[in-house]
Specification:
Blueprint (H helix, E strand, L loop, with lengths): L13 H15 L13 E6 L1 H4 L9 H12 L4 E4 L7 H15 L3 E5 L2 H6 L3 H17 L3 E5 L9 H18 L2 E3 L25 H12 L8
Length: 224
């Protein structure tokens, strides 16, 4: 599995912050960010089938493996996996306010976009949806790790390049941590994927966990 990308998208970044406020703040207005007594600092994962562990046992996916490592190395933290197979950024955007108010996370890992790209959905909508998710997470005081993806050029090189650039632009605009390509450590070997050539096998999950862990660890400072 090999992907190629480049080509930046830059215009109208100033509008993203305003758009997030318009879409998010009304729903959060009654819930100002504050610590919740008795709830441990939480990592909330909002992802698609790659984070939900499609085709794997419940304890085999990289999120489950990350939760196990968190329990060992950061025992005062917990991981909540709210990922759904087939999820798009639109679905994540529709769920984000409910989830951050329910979980009150200290860190939100956003791993969405692959299904948008595979369906050729408009990049402006993907950008808007991810921006809303980041904005809602930051409003409740959570740090954000944005996990990017690359797609094959089925819809043309411009689309594939623009798709990858969305993550970089949002990470820069909102000043959040970025892992540019989730599958980077395993993408070159076809043997790391199930028969659909999309979902990693169980044996590849530890490499994904380690890849994410490098970007996640700096965010795991216990909130005051």
């Amino acid at each position: 599995m090999k992907f190629s990308y480049a080509a930046p998208w830059r215009p109208f970044q100033w509008a993203i912050g305003l758009l997030v406020l318009l879409l998010t703040l009304p729903a959060l207005a009654q819930e100002p960010p504050r610590p919740v007594p008795g709830i441990p600092p939480t990592i909330l994962v909002m992802g698609d089938s790659l984070a939900a562990g499609y085709g794997l046992a419940a304890d085999q996916g990289w999120v489950a493996l990350t939760a196990r490592r968190v329990a060992e190395r950061k025992p005062d933290w917990r991981v909540v996996n709210a990922s759904i197979s087939g999820e798009t950024t639109s679905g994540g955007s529709a769920r984000i306010v409910r989830e951050v108010l329910r979980v009150r996370p200290a860190v939100v890992v956003i791993e969405l976009g692959a299904n948008d790209g595979l369906r050729g959905l408009p990049l402006r909508e993907m950008r808007r949806n991810l921006a809303r998710m980041i904005g809602a997470s930051q409003y409740v005081g959570a740090k954000v790790l944005l996990v990017g993806m690359r797609i094959p050029p089925n819809y043309g090189a411009d689309y594939a390049n623009g798709f990858e650039q969305v993550y970089r632009d949002l990470a820069a605009h909102f000043d959040v941590a970025l892992l540019p390509f989730l599958l980077e450590p395993i993408a070159a070997d076809r043997g790391n994927f199930q028969d659909d050539n999309l979902h990693p096998v169980a044996g590849a999950q530890p490499a994904l966990r380690d890849h994410v862990w490098k970007s996640l660890t700096p965010l795991l400072q216990k909130p005051q």
